[in-house]
Amino acid sequence: MRRLGKLSWKSKEGRQTLINTLTQMSRKNDRIESLIEIIKNNNVGSQEELLRMLSEKGIFVTQATLSRDLKMLKTTKVPLDHGAYAYMLPDASTAKITSASRRSADLSHHMSNGFISLEFSGNLGVMLTRNGYASGIAYDIDMLNAPEIVGTIAGANTVFIALREGVSHERASEVISMIFPVNNRK
Q1: Could you give the CA distance from residue 5 to residue 113 in angstroms, rounded to a whole number?
Q2: Which residues contact 79 (CB under 8 A, 6 or more apart)?
């Protein structure tokens, strides 16, 4: 919030400055709420589309302001089945499930940390995550410095976890569960 500086809220100028500041805050909240609604209910792939949809609601902002809002909301662009991209909100409970994420019937039950499932084959673990979360999750696993895990490789929504020879899948699950609940393992 803007500071009134040497102005007093008791003066007419100070009150007007305060009213202007509060009005701007209200407009920003309205803009953010509209932006969330648009992203939740539409497959929007560009800032130009978002600007157009906001203007249809009577909200006019610059591309720079929109870009800051998208960053603040921590939106990501996810690929759709037909090669296009769409903005997605990070919280699965508020983000609508697009055709790109319909591959798994359980995706509507995402954990807030991005973890979806964990499967093993030999000495390799395959963790599915929400789109855009794999890199951070792989980093967290690597930072465990667990002797049972050789290392990880992350894609957009998949983490490959290399296990040391002789490490059981149960033991690997125990190690990984230090960070993520793995009870919904496939």
Answers
A1: 42
A2: 85, 100, 131, 156
Nearest-5° angle of CA 109, CA 112, CA 115? 75
Section 106-117 average pLDDT: 56
Residue 5 lies in a domain: no
pTM of the model: 0.43
Which tens digits make up the pLDDT trace of 14-52? 666 655 554 544 577 888 888 999 998 988 989 999 999
Which residue is listed with tokens 């560009």? 46
**Residues 172, 161: Cα–Cα separation, whole Å:** 9
Side-chain half-sphere CA neighbours of 11 within 13 A = 8
Q: What is the CATH number of the domain that holds 22?
A: 1.10.10.10
pLDDT tens-digit series, residues 75-91: 888 777 677 788 888 75
Closest CA to 55 of 38, 77, 75, 74: 38
